[in-house]
Structure prediction request, 477 residues.
Amino acid sequence: MKKKFLCTILCISMAASMLVGCGAKSDSTDSGSGTAEEGTAADQEASQDTGAETPADSEADSGNSYEQYAGTTIHVAAIETAYGSEMWQEVAEAFTAETGVEVELTTDKNLEDVIGPSMQGGEYPDFIHLATGREAGLTEQFIKGNMISEVTDVLSMTIPGETVVVSDKIAKGFTDTSLTNPYGDGKTYLAPMFYSPCGLFYNAGLLKEKGWEVPTTWDEMWELGDKAKEEDIYLFTYPTAGYFDTFLYALMYSAGGPEFFDKATHYEEGIWETPEATACFDIIAKLATYTNPITPAQANDQDFTQNQQLVLDNKAIFMPNGTWIVGEMAEAPRADGFEWGMMALPAVKSGEDCYSYTWFEQSWIPAGAENQDAAKLFMSFLYSDTACEIFAKSGAIQPIVDIADKLEGDNVMFYSIYDNGVKPAMGNFAAFNAIPGVEVRTVFLEPVNSLVSGGITEDDWIKDVISASDQMRENLK
Prediction:
């Protein structure tokens, strides 16, 4: 795993050096207006002769004609997750049928290792679907290196095959977070993709069998943990420490609301010594004592499903996860009477708000991509009804207005979590310039493994967080 990470970093470093001479971003033609009024055929011909027309203008004026992309082939690279790779092939074919733009598709579970060598040589995919938060940290490295193209203009592009623009389709709030606007400049660089309400997943059948109530506060959670311990069942597990990102974000909202979350994720001086921060640290440290002790040994990208299996086997009750867990463990054995359940994080105190983090993946266009206009066209197509229906068949849900009305099965329960008083949490830690040995994951998330195993104390962790946070604040972008 360390070798993979070092290889990725070397790839990024070499790629970055190749871009220095021409700036952080390429000067691609703007393809994002997509709202121009229809003109006459003569107007179109005249504008083509003078070169004054933008790709988006031509697209709108010609009634969704894409002659300007004739002969174009874009390279699309997408991470293969529990949703599978077939959906990407089907979407690519639908896009080609609509626009005529050919797609060369690369999908892999270890996408970073596949596209890294070509990027080392200066050849970039035109479009990449790869979320932040992965162990290799490839997307984060591109963000820190200012090597991602701005895609704000995509929001105003007319979706191929439809008459509406992208911003009319994306649900409110999804393009206003640090996950899509990492530099805090009001501009969008990453497009929101498959989203999932995140929370604590469990076997609802087990709780029914035992007559245990779903806890609504952390005090009730500890009480349940004590009951379960008497029957040799642990209260908690987690796939990998990386899954504590959505857990920690929701916990910060629960402890201090949006204001505390914003200050904490921007590393405000003294923020980690406040009562709100102390509540977060205390809860996670205490939860570590209720965690199945085998968890840290399996908390890696190869064995994480074994930790998830602990819930299916009634060896642990709760785990932080997202709605993809159903598909990911669809073929796994399970205890008799198993039934998926999902809950928001318990309130810190009785009567206070409960939060469920809304996690979503991201797609982006490398600044060094050759066909950026066509890549933006592809990005806009991903919010079409056609693409959304294809993705949904595999369980990948796009953040589209009223999408929950089209769902069925367990997804109805998962995506309606905000309908019953639970509040959504969004956002993540602000981007900062590269600091050797300091990453969000290594500072805030991975220490949970050591808390569970007893390798560090809560006080050790807090001291490390304060020290690293000071460096992050000094290096904010």
The first strand starts at residue 73 and ends at 79. The domain at 2-195+360-412 is CATH 3.40.190.10 (D-Maltodextrin-Binding Protein; domain 2). Confidence is low (pLDDT under 50) at residues 1-62. The longest helix spans residues 244-265.
